[in-house]
Amino acid sequence: METQLDPMKDDLPLMANTSYMLVKHYVLDLDMDFKSKVIEGIIVLFFETGSQYKKTSSTGKEGCQSHFDETCKIRASEPCHTLVASVSACSSKMEYNDLAVCGKGEEDPFDKNGDHSNKEQASGISSSKDCCDTENHGNKDFLLVLDCCDLSVLKVEEVDVAAVSGIEKFTRSAKLNDVSKDMGNTRNQIVHELVTLPADCWKEQLCYFTRCSRAPGCGELPFTTGTWSLEIRKPGIQTPADFPHAIRIWYKTKPEGRSVTWTTDQSGRPCVYTMGSPINNRALFPCQEPPVALSTWQASVRTAAGFVVLMSGENSAEPVQLQEGVLSWYYYVTMPMPASTFTIAVGCWQEVKQKSQQSFTGAIQTNTEFSLPSSQAGFSWHEEICSHVEYPCRFQNPAARLEAVIPYRVFAPSCLMECCEERLLQLIPQCLSAAYTTLGTHPFSRLDVLIVPSNFSSLGMASPHIIFLSQSVLPGGSHLCGTRLCHEIAHAWFGLAIGARDWTEEWISEGFATFLEDIFWARAQQLSHDEEKGQQELKALLRWRRLRDEVQNSEEELQVLRPKKESTGELSESGASIIKYGLKAEKAFMQVHYLKGYFLLRSLSRTMGEASYLTCLQKFVHKFHGQLVLSQDFLRMLLEDNPEQKESGLTVENIFQNWLDTSGIPKPLLQESETWKDCQLVQQVSDEVTKWVQTDQRIRKSSRKKRRQDEVIFQKLLPDQLVLLLESLLEEKTLCPRILQCLKKTYQLQKQDAEV
């Protein structure tokens, strides 16, 4: 299969055949070994038959649903017991003592394809002949293909879920047959009933996932590993419907694996974390990466005492001591998400606590009371049923809808604790509250913020329930720290709760987050209308300069926001595809998806008026959260709600043509760029640049004539103004050394933020 794909060295293949089998839940059991820099893992995957091979059940959906409801009612009052006996197929125990109740979602057929990742995907490829024969051919064993790289796979086996005590309640027949094929069908039926339990049975569902993951094996499965894939078969099984729907894989990561980074923190202590690799998590665990593969997961992680495990989970895990010197941490997720959003960080992190007298609860209550958006009650769509696949959704939870500041924690190496307390800790509730006033309900129930090691290659990265921030955002005042925090918080809505259905449309995540960071940060600072407008005009000019420079110095094909054009969103028959330029080194440093996406959204906001535009964003969030979208989903809704724009000639087609389907600077942006020079904050910078240039000229003359210079008074500048000043001075052919020294002294450059 891999030889037929033949991707360029810059392309990343997605090998998983998700159209045949679709993973619905992962159970991970991991041991961290810092000496060997290896994670030893056991993972159990629970599948549904994919869309290409979905078989109609003998009983209708209504009967199936009533069975689910009856099952939940029968065991509603029963405690969730985990197995404590040692099972030969599983080497260790998991701890499940920190389950929290979420809101109830609404049911909808799972018919959305996509992924929340920000990586690029281009041409789809059809590889069904190599990964499986269709039911019509019937002469080859079916191959389950998973995405896998830099892993040592040790063993694969089918899990005998029918052996779990009490599991017969998930079967429609009174007895479990001993006939091999019937047993296989029974096991698959049990998995089907388990993965399709209603949202309000999520606790019971997690409990049974745990118990099934520890069930004994019922036969090893032959497998082969390639550069990018793990292929598994069961001899004699020729269709996905008959293939085992619960499999267990023993594996080890490799020290050189590209999904995680083994390093030391700023205090010199060992740590490991997922750092946003272009290959996502396929070198951390075997998984399905194509867009359709939205799944839930739960994970138990064991590590030496003294280490803290943080993860993209709904619960704030508390460690359980398994034996002297060994702790176990457990996290879970009930909202289906792409495997690429699974995030873990293990290190000697310390929690940053507030020393002030105001308690955390008090801070939440204060912000909630202050920040309740008066507009929320006016929208009838707030009461609508959610359109996503069923899960415990916060948008349907009355308490969650009123929560302006979700519970948060901050972790950092010991040497950065004081800096985090002074700056970061106080900014988080302000930024969360500002986001809530703008978009409404927080999609996730809690937030951890971690200052990651100094080798982190960007300023921030958002994942469900956790944000990584670079140490570079901490020095130099609150501006950079606040804006970056707002950017990552915005990803909770755009990039995570709402994801791009096609990975090439990265702008849906990054463009929205860049646009919203300005709105959030202005509200967090409680700026006046004029102050907010001035700062946004200044920011627009800085971004314009970056976009102009990038367009002049990058390949044209990397500048297009919708490179697949009319083919965007299309998948191959098997679900496998290639991410065009997914491994291209230059791509990691490009900001075109951030900047062109931002300018498109800014242009639409200016055309429609900010208040009307933000109302449309709120409506879009409530309509599409928990789903995967294409550009036209947003643009069509926007124009339908603003018919006067359509009448004036603004259409989805001309937005595609002007903004998304072409390289270079969009034509509408060329016309707007001159207007920013009239902004007062920009004019102040222009005046200061003139002073510095004139001072430089006088210094050069005085050095020849030895005249004493009159002192020049320079104005105090905002951080973004200072960036513009320095960029403008760099455009001068020469500046004398004394000017550089004066600049450093006047603006205390060594104390400014990383942007400066």
UniProtKB/TrEMBL annotation:
SUPFAM superfamilies: ARM repeat, Leukotriene A4 hydrolase N-terminal domain, Metalloproteases ('zincins'), catalytic domain. It comes from the Eukaryota. Residues 442-659 form the Peptidase M1 membrane alanine aminopeptidase domain. The keyword Protease applies. One of its GO terms (cellular component) is nucleolus. It holds the Pfam family Peptidase_M1. Keywords: Aminopeptidase, Hydrolase, Protease. One of its GO terms (molecular function) is metalloaminopeptidase activity. InterPro entries: Aminopeptidase_N-like_N_sf, AOPep, ARM-type_fold, M1_LTA-4_hydro/amino_C_sf, Peptidase_M1_dom, Peptidase_M4/M1_CTD_sf. This is AMPO Aminopeptidase. It comes from Oreotrochilus melanogaster.
